[in-house]
Amino acid sequence: DAGTWDESKVREWQDVAAESQRKGEKTHVGMVFGICVEKNSDQPIGSPDRKFKGRYVFRGNQVRNEYDDYAIFNELSSAPAGMQASKLVDCFGLLPGHTCETSDAPAAYTQSKLGGTKTWVRLPYDQRPASWKGKFRDPVVPLVLALYGHPDAGGYWEKHCEAHLRSVGFTDVEVWRSCFVHPKLKVFLVVYVDDFKMSGPTAAVKQAWAMVQKGIKIEPPEPCTRYLGCYHRIETIK
Q1: Which of 43, 57, 111, 178 has the fewest CB atoms within 10 Å, measured from its CB?
Q2: First-last CA distance in the chain
Q3: What is the dihedral of CA 56, 58, 61, 64, to 10 degrees?
């Protein structure tokens, strides 16, 4: 439904590869498959944080090119914020009149377009449209969005995320990747892949979240209780 791949352009991989060889164009092909994991399995049995999560992903370790050789990627490295940055957000959020909140971007990678070499994917048999039956031997469709598992997906998502943040007034913290400040609102934001954590004056944080939501789909922000596996508890010491 998100348009991660385009089923309207289904073709035989043999035809796609032959056309790419004839034109001298690079083309990649890979597989989409489903996985299911238990999130937060380290928590006690019965904990509401434990839940099973299913998703379809790209098999990034078995990608071939038009000559059936292993594909070579640009290796767009991403640089998520570290734990030190998270602690600094905590500190800033403890100042009088400040707050600290978190949010996550659902299906983050597929909020960005996949660039680079055109990539085609083979869908799982149980996910192929019934209309394909008997018409194709090895059907493939173009991969449009940066599906999780693609070696360059994280890099394209990060570029998309950072470009939007800069467009709404955030500036990068020098030599500290994935950390941003908004000079006008005086808020501090760190991004760890799809996890956002922000602190600053309460009213300003609310405005800043609204700016983020103009170009990035995120869950409703809430007070920081758990981030990167760490539970947070705020106490007032008299």
Answers
A1: 43
A2: 53
A3: 140
Which residue has tokens 């914020």? Answer: 81
- Separation CA 92–CA 198 (nearest Å): 9
* DSSP character at residue 221: P
> 42: alpha, beta or left, given left = phi > 0 and alpha = psi -120 to 50?
alpha
Q: Is the pLDDT of residue 233 over 90?
A: no
Residue 9 identity (one-letter amino acid): K
Residues 169, 71 contacting (CB under 8 angstroms):
no
pLDDT digits (tens, 9 = 90+) for 102-130: 999 999 999 999 999 999 999 999 999 99
Q: Angle 4-135-128 (CA atoms, 0-180°, nearest 5)? A: 30
Q: Which residues does residue 35 pair with via DSSP β-bridges, in sequence order?
A: 55
DSSP three-state, residue 109: helix
The pTM of this model reads 0.86
pLDDT for residue 159 is more than 60: yes
